[in-house]
Amino acid sequence: DIISMSYLFLSCTEKYLLLYPKIQEKIASFMKERDHKLLTLESELLAIDIIFENIS
Predict the structure, then answer these.
(1) First CA to last CA across the chain, in angstroms?
(2) Is residue 10 one of the residues assigned to a domain?
(3) Is residue 53 part of a domain?
(4) What span, in angstroms and rounded, lies between the C-alpha atoms of 5 and 50?
(5) How far apart are CA 26 and CA 12, in angstroms?
(6) I need a surface site. Which of 2, 8, 20, 42 has the fewest CB within 10 A?
(7) What are the Cα distances from residue 31, in Å, to 3, 35, 49, 52?
(8) Is residue 54 in a domain?
């Protein structure tokens, strides 16, 4: 029973190690997309500020 438990642990660890590059890639992709969206939002807010300054 202990042998099967250690085998199960090993297989889970191996699965994690195989998935790790994909997980790391997904995190990097998410961060890049988030940064892009934040820059877009910042640009839009700046444009709104400029419009309001011109109105008042």
Answers:
(1) 77
(2) no
(3) yes
(4) 64
(5) 20
(6) 2
(7) 41, 6, 27, 31
(8) yes
- From residue 39, give the alpha-carbon distance in Å to each of 36, 43, 50, 53, 56: 5, 6, 17, 21, 26
Can you tell me which residue has the tokens 């820059």? 39
**Environment class of 19 (CB within 10 Å of its CB; exposed 0-12, middle 13-18, buried 19+):** exposed
pLDDT of the chain, 56 residues: tens digit per residue: 566 666 666 677 777 777 788 888 888 899 999 999 999 999 999 999 999 999 97
* 13/19 Cα distance (integer angstroms): 10
